Amino acid sequence: MEPAFILHPLGEELVKNFQAERESLETAVREFLAMNEQGILRASREIAEAFSRGGKALFFGNGGSAAEAQHLAAELVNRMTRDRPALAALALSTDTSSLTSIANDSAYERVFSRQMEALGRRGDVAIALSTSGNSPNILQGLEAARRLGIRAVAFLGGDGGRARVLADIPLVVQAACTARIQEVHLFAGHLLCEEVETILFPLPRSSS
User: Fold this and answer.
1) Which CATH number do you get for residue 105?
2) How confident is the prediction for the chain on average, in pLDDT?
3) Rounded distance between C-alpha atoms, residue 175 and residue 124, angstroms
């Protein structure tokens, strides 16, 4: 049986590619933090305040961003770095029955806005993730949040797309590579979750 793929030996090209990818990520993280540090702190404060009022965080995204939305919601429901009470967070990309029924009966563009209308309340925070900022269902989800008086944070890429003006706090990774954008989104999302925990559940001060 012939092999399905041919394995090429490790060589100079692979090493150069690894180094280029590493440098690309380091640059993307550095530039993102330089431009968005205050935005992350503002977003963390708004989400913490929503939880303190009994509100919730509603994450949504497509594809890899859907996976990150689910990941970050789980960090808040369970824990990030410290033991503490559970926080009300959910990802709108995980209910396959709702997603497919809305897409089938109405349009895929409405899969997040319809759930936002059902589950979102004033005092919640909507958190969109999109590498382009132009996906129609992301835009409609943000528009629904605005109609409901729900504050919105958006992790975006490139120039932020049309979602940039719909979000109260846009956090933009100004990169062209989808992989770099998603990697920085996850890093920034972890920072956000850690800050939320720190605000709501500060560690006891040492008596020494």
Assistant:
1) 3.40.50.10490
2) 95
3) 30
